[in-house]
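Contributing new records

If you add data, match the layout below exactly. Sequence lines come first and carry their own label; structure lines follow with theirs. Keep one chain per record. Anything else will be rejected by the validation script.
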Amino acid sequence: MSEVTDLTVIEIKPEQAPALYSPNGLDAYLEQIKAAVNEVPDLSTKKGRDRVASLAAQVSRSKTAIEKPGREHLKRLKEAVKPAEQEIKRFVDACDALRDATRLPLTEWEAEQERIKQEEEAKRAAEELAKQVEADHEIALLLNEKFDRDAAEAKAEAEHQRIAHEEELKRQAAEQAKREAEENAQRERDEAARREAEFKLKAEQAERDRVAAEQKAAADAKEAAERAEREKQEAIAEAQRKAQEEADRVRRETEAKEAARLAEEKRVADEKARREADIEHRRTINRQSVAELVAAGLPEDCAQKCVAAIAKGEVTAIRITY
């Protein structure tokens, strides 16, 4: 089997990410990796089997070298849209709080109108009940007058009959008629008294119902007013609580943004220092390699070209370890 080479170490810089991590942007690296492992080692020998394992491991390392900065690029893209999401949420929450605070006077007005409506309905019910009681009382008076007229007429008729039959019935018949008339009159008086008592009871019950209705109307009106006041205070407290929560959230967001900004500045500065240190380290190694080649007998310009070619990966079988 002929001499084989390793895959060139892949390094992707952040400024290359937008162009590479786009549709088909990594095809060149994929073709490079395919070409580097395009071998058919002899699996009957240990060296051949080790070579297959080495090639597979190199593919994994190359994959990681490309995937890791790609994941970092994707993370930066997600972080870039996060402020827009937060600003939209802040705006929506602020508008909701403003909407509730704007509608608060209307909510209070509607509660007041409901209380007034309940008071008016209770007052109307009490007035109707009072009118009904007054009408029942007038009917009772009219019935009493009719009863008195009927009783007088009945008494006159009985007296007329007694006189008409006095001669025929003599004294005994006359006395019997008189007793009967008196008994009838007493029954009628008793009946009238009973009806009067019933009317009186009904009038008293109607008065009690009227008083109870007025008391209930007053109690309902008071309860409605208290309920409206409670709801008003609760609405005010809720609006104040939301406003305070919004203020706290805005403050936290501002602090978080400032912390993120400082962290990003530190990360950028650290990354810049790391790159500069790496560049300087590579320069030092390259200068040292040139010096060693010159010491081995190569001209300095030839040594510099050799080191530059090796560093660029143009000499496939030789690598510089930094």
